[in-house]
Amino acid sequence: MNLTFKAGDLTIHRIIEQETTFLPALEMLPDLTPDVLAENRAWMQASNALDGEDVLVLCFQSYVVKTPHHTILVDSCIGNDKPRPTRPKWNMKTDDTYMRGLAAAGFSVADIDYVMCTHLHVDHVGWNTRLANGRWVPTFPKARYVFGKTEFDYWMGVHAKTPVPVIEDSVLPIVEARRFEAVANDHQIGDHVRILPTPGHTPGHSAFVLGRGRDDAVFSGDLMHSPIQTRYPEMSVKFDVDPADAAKTRRSFLERYCDTETLCCTAHFPSPSVGKIRRWGDGFSCEAV
Fold first, then answer.
1. Residue of 265, 164, 278 lying closest to 215 (CA atoms)
2. Which partner from 56, 92, 134, 272 sits 20 to 30 angstroms from 48, CA to CA?
3. Residue 193 to residues 204, 240, 245: CA-CA distances in angstroms?
4. CATH classification of 4-288, choosing from 3.60.15.10, 3.90.226.10, 3.40.50.10240, 1.10.510.10?
């Protein structure tokens, strides 16, 4: 399994917390028909994107990117000790898989300069915080946590009306510790990190583009969850807040990076999770590197 990639002057490390079955394909992708699933079953199973019972296999992971100037963690995954009753594999988890993965890549929590969240869903902010003496504290003590302002404002509004547990345990403690920045879409970090708005999955979902003067790598977050969505970009998942907008954004993103040398680092595609976008009929494919 390839856990480290080079792109320009970047070194990219995958930190895997779980790679596991998630939901039946026909449930997670409402526009997927049994016939289209049958047409794609063989290659999806061969690439470990689908199990023998037609359940999607997803990877839940972070990326740590070493630029010449900073060490950046993209999306902080699931986390430990957090009540997630609707997801048994995540609920009150206590394993050391994530921290062992971080250490194996050569990093400690103190090495991270920035934590960047593509969006504020539960499996992308979990390790923002850890439990210490009964309190949620920032896991990465020196890091600035970067949230898109549109995304942050949206969830603050939702939470104000009806409390959202993940905001309570994984976002607000960062705010209270004054370790966060809610940034506009033109925000940059040094000469290597830029924001690409990719709304649809959530109102303020963002991809992150890294590279000096060019797009050496892009981190797509939940713009797409399964490789079948590259072949059929209009196929949205049931978790997309605006499925039509997500589909439009996904096709635009795939067109942008099709037949380029940009590494597309996906959040949830099965290992190796990283590839280059190529044309496939009216759709695309993410060819593993």
1. 265
2. 92
3. 18, 26, 25
4. 3.60.15.10
Q: Where are the domains of the chain?
A: 4-288
CA distance 157 to 154: 5
Distance CA 272, CA 38 (A): 24
Query: Could you report the per-residue pLDDT of 80-104, keeping only the tens digit for each?
Result: 999 999 999 999 999 999 999 999 9
Tokens of 119: 């969006």
- In angstroms, the CA 84 to CA 90 distance is 6
Contact 265, 215 (CB under 8 A): no
Q: What φ, ψ does residue 29 adopt, rounded to 5°?
A: -115, 90
Give pairs for 66-70: CB < 8 Å, separation 24+.
66/10, 66/11, 66/12, 66/13, 67/9, 67/10, 67/190, 67/192, 67/193, 67/210, 68/9, 68/192, 68/212, 69/190, 69/192, 70/113, 70/114, 70/189, 70/190, 70/192, 70/193
Residues of the chain scoring pLDDT < 50: none
Q: DSSP for 43-108?
A: HHHHTTSB-TTSEEEEEEEEEEEE-SS-EEEE---S-SS---TT-TTTTT----HHHHHHHHTT--
pLDDT tens-digit series, residues 256-272 = 999 999 999 999 999 99
Cα Rg of the chain (Å, integer): 18
Dist CA 132 CA 130 (whole Å): 6
Alpha helices (runs of H) in the chain, residue ranges in sequence order: 25-28, 34-46, 97-104, 122-125, 149-161, 165-170, 172-176, 228-231, 243-257
Percent of the chain with pLDDT over 90: 99
Q: 107 near 56, Cβ under 8 Å?
A: no
